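User: Predict the complex.
Assistant: Input components as received:
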Amino acid sequence: MNSRASTVVAPTKRPWLRLETALMLLGIAALLLAPFYFYPIFIMKVLCFALFACAFNLLLGYAGILSFGHAAFFGGAAYFTAHAVKEWGLSPELGLLVGVAGAALLGLVIGFLAIRRQGIYSTMITLALAQMFFFFCLQADFTHGEDGIQGIPRGRLFGLIDLEDPLYMYFFVLAVFLAGMLVIWRVIHSPFGMILRSIRENESRATSLGYSVSLYKLGAFVMSAALAGLAGGLKALVFQFATLTDVSWQMSGEVVLMTLLGGIGTLVGPVFGAALVTTLGNYFATSELPVTLVTGVIFMVCVLVFRRGMIGEFYASRLGRRLERRAED
Amino acid sequence: MTETTALLSVRELNAWYGESHALHGIDLDVYEGETVTLLGRNGVGKTTALRSIVGIIRKRTGSIRFDGKDMLRIPLHRTARHGIGYVPEERGIFSSLTVAENLTLPPIIGKGGMSLKEIYALFPNLEERGSSPGTKLSGGEQQMLAMARILRTGARLLLLDEPTEGLAPVIVQRIGEVLMTLKQRGMTILLVEQNFRFASKVADRFYVVDRGRINDSFTGAELPGRMNQLNEALGV
Amino acid sequence: MTTIFGIPIQAFLGQLLIGLINGSFYALLSLGLAIIFGMLKIINFAHGAQYMIGAFAGYLLLATFGIGYWPALILAPLIVGLASAVIERVALSRLYNLDHLYGLLFTFGLALALEGTFRYFYGSSGQPYAVPKELAGGYNLGFMFLPKYRAWVVLASLVVCLGSWLLIEKTKLGAYLRAATENPTLVRTFGINVPLLLTFTYGMGAALAGLAGMLAAPIYQVSPLMGSNLIIVVFAVVVVGGMGSILGAIITGYMLGLLEGLTKVFYPEASNIVIFVVMAIVLLVRPAGLLGRDT
């Protein structure tokens, strides 16, 4: 069918919808085939951080809250899941649940305190509270301090599927990742997500319309923390250890960088950002240049000239704008 | 009679607030020593015109010549150095500075400014309240302070935005007296006023502004004949 | 040996002194942050790195040029201040009309880059810096021993904090700064070069951090990591005391340092999180901060 004809008459066909769906299916197909071409552990690492970054982006890009302490949720859940699976002998999906629940609780506490102030103060509070959690992890018994929790068994999914097999583990991780992305997508397009965005655009306006801004912000916080926790617990199962690095402020900074590079406020931007940063990290791990220096320079350059991130730049480009224009038909 | 060049000469001034086109080709002249008023209803662009002349609004085309020099490309913090003094509508008194600090904040940019002694003679209560925080003054006193601090700098052109707004009649009269004193000293003033009665007492010439354009101009002598037209234009 | 609450008085006063010293650094650093935030509306994450570089500048001046403590006390902050002013001019100033978070992200990147560079050259361990001989030794006060250098640090920080406060509240330059904080556009119409003022402010704030680093060098080891963990604590201090008030930042710094010292005496496990706990409590009870000038 000639698409020109359909836009002139009435848009019964939606070519843009087909294009976005096609791209998405292509992406999923690529992920399904990936473990046969690339090192599975590497892609699993990317998927975990991609989910982490998307969870973070839910809070920043849609609710407008910059959290500089998201590692608390990520790393905290890693510890909780590790403990649940190793010490309590839970199966991996239950272990993940423990991690998510723990992260959600942390999100409730930290979020509650952070939203007592606005803007940049909010951010400083998340940083400080996450650091407090870091010190707690440093000294607590169950985290084993500087050693971390090692030798986490992957266990049998639902008691049936042996996740020690790298291929089964991979598809489990992929399934969890896709489930997480689905949740985020649904939240963004739900009434809750719309109200969040209106709060981000104009908070006083939203208040005058009768919305309890604090509750929405807190809800966003908890959701973001829970999803970050899902990523963290998953990561603990993939690498089979949980350490202090996972709760450090450097980790919090890294997820910010991933989101910035990928595109704040875009759905898939953080995925690409996570892929890029993880690849760069692996590359620089063996080189002479210190990773912190490179990360710092990339941060500065991005903030100065590349604020929209990869996907943001794409949407702003001619191809991207054409896609968006069709969406408005 | 020989033609003297205007101290301030504006031609074809267009200005934009972001995307919105606020001024559509303003032409005006202000000669040395005279007081010119921009008249017009709320929101027609009078304040925008002043802000464009000073340089707060940067998106402009056209020409602004002050004392023969082109002002359009000069950065904001240098326009004062050429002799343009600006008293904004909101007065802009700083709450974290004392009255005395507010008064002496703008640096002296030319000769011929009033000395502190002369300023305190004109505005005695500024001296009394010297160490109070600036915003503890009444509205009228803040207006006096906002004018006084520019008078100290030696500015040659005074841009005054709605000096009488929101002030009691007694204070308005006082401000009128101050302006007459300044005129006697030869100060050049570009005044924006909605209070037509006040403006007619102090101004030599008038421009009527409507929707970003100058619709009419006339001298003080021609004023009586224009009263009816004006009343309509100003919605009085 | 006398005891106080069951603790030997020497140990008690010893910890209190350490708390006072830490408080001196908290005060100096939160002062710098508050000054920068007041004018530039930017959270300077690089403050910890500037503190660290101040200490390294002192170390390198001594190791490479044989320049001792006293000249370095002036030179190190000057170096840090000038370098930071350049960064402000070239990069940071482009971010002022954007959302505040970009300023934070930029300075965060700067902090990482600086820390990474120094860690590359000097590793993670610290370099020693000797206490200047004029300040070696101490006074025996009977109930405790007071090291001269420690007393000097407290005195110097008090003088610098007071001096900064006087500069901002009582001088003409301070009037320019205060006015530009309130209404920068209007100040520019007076003929004052506000962009230059902003550069100066950032440089001054950074120099204060560099000075703190110089003071710290003989006490803590000069290490590339010395700034990063400290800066997060200073953030908490600033949330408690508020960045709307210079005096608030200073007072809160000293008080929280003392509190930390006290906690070390009675409940040592909590000493490195007590400031965060205080922050949490203040947030619950008085969200606007103790001096309540922020929103």
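Residues 9-228 of chain C form one domain.
Let me know if you want any component modeled separately.
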